[in-house]
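Example record used in the benchmark description.
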Amino acid sequence: MSTGKRVLLTGASGFIAAHVLKILVAEGFWIRATVRSDAKAKAIAAVYPDAVKNGQLEFGIVEDIAAPHAHDKVVVADPPLDYVLHTASPFHMNVQDPKKDMLDPAVNGTRGLLESVKQHAPSVKRVVITSSFASILNADKLSPPWPGKVYSEDDWNPITWEKALTDPSNTYRGSKTFAEKAGWDFVKTEKPNFDLVTLCPPMVFGPIINDQTLASLNTSNQRINGYLSGQLTAVAPTGVHLWIDVRDLALAHVRALTIPEAGGNRFFTLADGIYTNQDICDILRKHFPEVKDRVPEGKPGAGLGLKEGEYFVGDNSKSKKILGLTYRGLEESVVDTAKSILELEKKSA
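Model output (structure tokens):
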């Protein structure tokens, strides 16, 4: 492997990380991928046998990213690491206590990783963290959807710790906001050798790769699967209508590692234009006649039912300018996602 391209990828079995890993392997990076178990490592190794065999890809087990010193060992490599890509989020099967089960682990997971890098991997030049539009969005302005507002990297979710304890949606948004802020605060106060980049995607659609199962679909793709499978029998309200294709987001992660000007920046990574659940159903009914009877018809072509200027949008110009991104359109993304879901459906039948 070429020197200067050695990266730690956390949360490697995740939906976004699977696409990031595919690009890293193709571009000749040496990768240490962290997962929660040996079984997850073996599943990924089976997808990249050559990379494992030639020593390009190896694995580290981190069962709980929020545990103290969780990353102390995996950040140490010989030759040493150049970059860290942090896509992992704390794992919650059942959130009983929002503070203990979600908010504290999110903040401690981010801060703990950065402390491990600072203490044990001084060669690391840059850390890229997967954040979320949840850290940008003002949820009090979702209904009606903040007419005329253009969200950008300058916006921060104004959520308080107290509000984050009130319900699961606020807990999730709070965890993403406080974790990202913890990253920026760490760099400011600790002045490590590395700079920081954060990426803030909204809904993430796109094909499933690396032999993931229907049960492990990310939240955004569960929506497409719900319509394809007939589980969702009506066109639901859209909620957040901003989105990105996972392949574009994965490329953003890799470019954020190596483009010098990206350092110290937050990027709002999102596709041009908006999507609605009605749009998704329209696309599925058009391209997949074999499941047309399962997909609700709704009101074809109705979209959001609002005029331009009557709902918030996002500004992706910074990601285009600095990271050189061009974004896929909704039709391509939904069709490719649906194809991959239907393939999985066939396999599991």
